[in-house]
Design goal:
The strands form four sheets. This protein has an eight-stranded mixed β-sheet. It folds into two domains: 136 residues, no CATH class; 250 residues, Peptidoglycan recognition protein-like (Lysozyme-like, 3-Layer(aba) Sandwich), CATH 3.40.80. 40% of the residues lie in helices and 10% in strands. It is of the alpha/beta class. The chain has 15 helices and 15 strands. The structure holds zinc ion. Zinc ion binds next to loops.
C-alpha cells in the first residue's frame, strides 16, 4: 500500500507536499550557500519549501526558464525573512537581489503574455492531468534535493516543548503512536559509568560492551577542537584544549515520515538524507535515529557546527565556544503541528548508552551534559532560548544526570541575558533554575544600588567583551568567505544570533 493510498487517520498528521522542481531546488540551494548555521539553513529550507509547494506547479507552467528561476529566487529570498527574523542587515543585503529578481519576473511575465493562447492550452492540459494523478510522496523529492531532510531547530519558532511529558490538546494525536513517550526508570545519580570497552568492530560499525553500537558509515573528520576557557573573573585562560569537556543534547525537529509500519523505505531514505545533510554541514558529532541507531558523523576530536552562540559554566570555568568544547548529540525527531514529537524508547536507551560511553571516554562531568535549549542565547537580542530544543523535558534522571533545569543558567546569572513573552509562551513555566538566577541577579542589583536595567547593560557589555577575546575558530571564517564568493547574495544569517 502506498503512503498516499492510506486512510484518513494517517492523512490527518501527514503533511503532503508536492515535489518541487529541480530548478526551484537549485535556486533555494544557491540561496542557502550563504547561510552558514546549518540549523538555520534547514529551517529556512523547510519554510521556503512549504511556501513554494503551493506555487511550484503553477510556476512550472511559465514557459521561460529565466523567469521561473527568478520567481523561485524571489520567493526564496522572501522566505528568508522567516529566518532573518526582521534582521535589518540581512534584509538590506538581500534587497538588491530581490529587486533584480522582481524585475526579471515582471519583464519576462510580460513577454510570456505573448504566449497566452499557448499558456491557456498548457494550463488546461495540466489541470486535466492533475485530476488524474495523485501527488507524489515527499520522499520522491529527496533525491533531487536533500532539503526535505530538514533538521529544523526552532530558533524562536513557536513550539510546545515537553517532548516527554505533554501532549498538545489542539494537535490530534496519531492513532498508533502514544502522545506520551515511554520513559525509563531513573539511573543512580552521579555514578561514573562502568568501564566500557570496544567489544567488536566491522568496516562501518563499532560495538561497545554496554550494547552501544555506533555506525561509522557517515563519519567525517572536521576541524580539530581548539578552545580556551574564561575564568569567572573574565580572564581568558592560556591553556588550549583539544578534547571535549561536555555534551550538548539536541533534537533534529525534522520533517520526517511517521514512525509506522508501511513507511520502511521512506523512513530509511529520510534518515539517510538527514545524515547526508548533517555530514555535509558537519552539524552534529552524533545522531540517533528513531530506531535507536547511533551514527557518528563528525568525529569526536573535531568541532561540529551545532551550538551557535551559547554559554555554559562549571565551577570557575566559563565556556563560550560550545561548538569546540561540547560534543553535539542529536536525537532525530519529527516536527509536527508546531512541536517536536517525543523521542522513542529506543532512542532513550541508545542515548543513555552513548552518553555513558562519551562520559567515560572523555571524563565528562555530569553537570556538563547540557541541553541546547538551556545554553543557547541570541547575543544580538540579549535573550536566552535562541534555539529551544530540549528547553524542557530532557530525561536527565533516566540518564543518571543531575536535573540542570533546576540550576541557574550561567547566561542569565553571569551575563544578564533576558527572555521575552515568546520564550515563556513556548517553554511554559520558567525553569526553577531560571527563577533562582533572576533572584540572584536582582539581589546583585540591590547590593550595588543600581537598577536591574543598568546591571543588565553592564553584564551584557561584559559578555561582548569576553566574546571579543575568543580566537576566531579556524575554518569558520574561510567557509563563510567561500560561501560569499559562490553567490552574489550575501546573507550570513548566523551573524544575527
Ligand atoms: Zn540544537
Amino acid at each position: 500500500m502506498t503512503a498516499a493510498a492510506r486512510g484518513s487517520p494517517t492523512e490527518r498528521y501527514r503533511r503532503e507536499r508536492p515535489p518541487v522542481s529541480r530548478e526551484c531546488g537549485d535556486e533555494l540551494t544557491r540561496i542557502t550557500d550563504d547561510i552558514d548555521d546549518p540549523i538555520v539553513k534547514l529551517r529556512y529550507l523547510q519554510s521556503a519549501l512549504n511556501e513554494e509547494g503551493d506555487n511550484s506547479a503553477l510556476v512550472q507552467l511559465v514557459p521561460i526558464a529565466p523567469a521561473r528561476r527568478a520567481w523561485y529566487r524571489l520567493k526564496g529570498l522572501q522566505a528568508l525573512d522567516a529566518v532573518a527574523d526582521a534582521d535589518e542587515e540581512i534584509a538590506e543585503r538581500t534587497l538588491n537581489a530581490r529587486k533584480t529578481a522582481r524585475r526579471v519576473v515582471v519583464g519576462t511575465t510580460a513577454a510570456a503574455l505573448l504566449f497566452v493562447p499557448v499558456l491557456v492550452a498548457i494550463v488546461a492540459w495540466q489541470i486535466n492531468k492533475w485530476g488524474s494523478t495523485e501527488p507524489k510522496p515527499i520522499a520522491a523529492v529527496a533525491s533531487s534535493t536533500e532539503a526535505n531532510a530538514t533538521v529544523i531547530e526552532s530558533a524562536t519558532a513557536p513550539m510546545v516543548v515537553s517532548p516527554l511529558l505533554t501532549a498538545t490538546p489542539e494537535v490530534a494525536a496519531p492513532v498508533n503512536q502514544p502522545p506520551v513517550a515511554e520513559t525509563l526508570a531513573a539511573e543512580d545519580l552521579g555514578i561514573v559509568p562502568a568501564m566500557l570497552w570496544l567489544a567488536d568492530r566491522g568496516p562501518d560499525w563499532e560495538l561497545y560492551s554496554n550494547g552501544l553500537r555506533i555506525e561509522t558509515k557517515y563519519a567525517v573528520k572536521g576541524t580539530a577542537r581548539d578552545y580556551r576557557v574564561h575564568s569567572r573573573g573574565g580572564e581568558l585562560l592560556p591553556t588550549k584544549f583539544s578534547r571535549p569537556i561536555g555534551i550538548l543534547f539536541h533534537t533534529s525537529e525534522s520533517d520526517l515520515w511517521p514512525l509506522e509500519p508501511g513507511y520502511e523505505k521512506e523512513l530509511r531514505q529520510g534518515s539517510e538524507a538527514l545524515l547526508r545533510f548533517v555530514k555535509r554541514e558537519q552539524a552534529y558529532n552524533y545522531m540517533i535515529d528513531r530506531f535507536g541507531r547511533v551514527y557518528r558523523v563528525v568525529d569526536d576530536d573535531s568541532r561540529a557546527n551545532h551550538a551557535g552562540h551559547g554559554v555554559w559554566a562549571r565551577g570557575d570555568e566559563v565556556y563560550l565556544d560550545l561548538n569546540s568544547a561540547f560534543l553535539g548529540v542529536s536525537f532525530e525527531s519529527r516536527w509536527e503541528g508546531g512541536r517536536t514529537l517525543p523521542i522513542t524508547r529506543a532512542q532513550l536507551i541508545a542515548g543513555r548508552n552513548l552518553t555513558n560511553y562519551l562520559r567515560q571516554r572523555f571524563a565528562i562531568a555530569p553537570e556538563m551534559c547540557v541541553t541546547h535549549g538551556l545554553a543557547s542565547v541570541s547575543p544580538k537580542r540579549g535573550l536566552i532560548g535562541y534555539h529551544l530544543d530540549w528547553a524542557r523535558g530532557f530525561p536527565f534522571a533516566a540518564f543518571g544526570l543531575p536535573d540542570l533545569y533546576s540550576q541557574p543558567p550561567p547566561s542569565v546569572a553571569l551575563f544578564g541575558f533576558n527572555y521575552d513573552s515568546e520564550f515563556l509562551r513556548t517553554v511554559g513555566e520558567r525553569w526553577p533554575g531560571l527563577v533562582a538566577a533572576e533572584r540572584q541577579f536582582a539581589s546583585d542589583a540591590r547590593e550595588r544600588s543600581i537598577s536591574l536595567e543598568d546591571l543588565r547593560r553592564e553584564r551584557q557589555e561584559e559578555y561582548r567583551r569576553w566574546r571579543a577575546t575568543l580566537p576566531t575558530p579556524a575554518g569558520a571564517e574561510s567557509a563563510l568567505e567561500s560561501a560569499n564568493q559562490q553567490s552574489p547574495v550575501s546573507t550570513t544569517v548566523n551573524k544575527r544570533g
